[in-house]
Amino acid sequence: MTLRTAMLATAGALAATFSAYAFEATTLADYSGEEIFLRYCAACHGEMGRGNGPVARSLKIPAPDLTAISRHYGGFPTALVRGVIDGRGSGIDAHGTRTMPVWGYEFWMEGGGDDVARRQMQDVITKLVDYIRSIQDDSVAANRN
């Protein structure tokens, strides 16, 4: 293979990678809440949301068990969960830096950082909140009654 052929092959591979990434980023809002969760959240929170993802052991602050939110708060605090995921201006982390990424900003920038991306980011966060609501384990609370 000549140097020119190798360079063209490499350029083609890079172009394909970047176009796949761009396509993926612009269609993030098309994914289900579960798909978004598995892609962006499961590394820390685990596939089932119990805080036992493969990265969890390396975190200084343990990833919480997302299936216990309703039990902990006596109901599902939609606005609080949305604020934690979004992470921008929520005031939740006023006492220190945040371990969890500021997904609102990340999703907005992935989508291009414009008004369309802002709307898509809000849809993505809504899907994540709805999915996290759907995985709540109320069995312990039910057993206490």
Structure, explained:
By secondary structure, this protein is mainly α. It has one domain: Cytochrome Bc1 Complex, Chain D, domain 2, CATH 1.10.760. The chain is about 60% helix and about 0% strand. The protein has eight helices and no strands. It has helices spanning about 5-25, 35-40, 40-45, 70-75, 80-85, 105-110, 115-135, 140-145. The protein is globular and about 40 Å long. Mean pLDDT is about 75; it is low at about 1-25 and about 140-145.
Which features does this protein show?
8 helices; mainly alpha; disordered C terminus; Cytochrome Bc1 Complex, Chain D, domain 2
Name the structural class. Answer: mainly alpha
Mean pLDDT: 77
What CATH calls the topology is Cytochrome Bc1 Complex, Chain D, domain 2
Spans where pLDDT lies below 50 across 5 or more residues: 1-26, 140-145
Shape annotation: globular
Helical amount = 55-70%
Spatial extent as radius of gyration: 19 Å
CATH class: Mainly Alpha
Strand content: under 5%
Number of domains: 1
Number of helices: 8
Order of helices and strands: HHHHHHHH
CATH architecture: Orthogonal Bundle
Please summarize what this structure is.
This protein is mostly helical. The protein has one domain (22-144): Cytochrome Bc1 Complex, Chain D, domain 2.
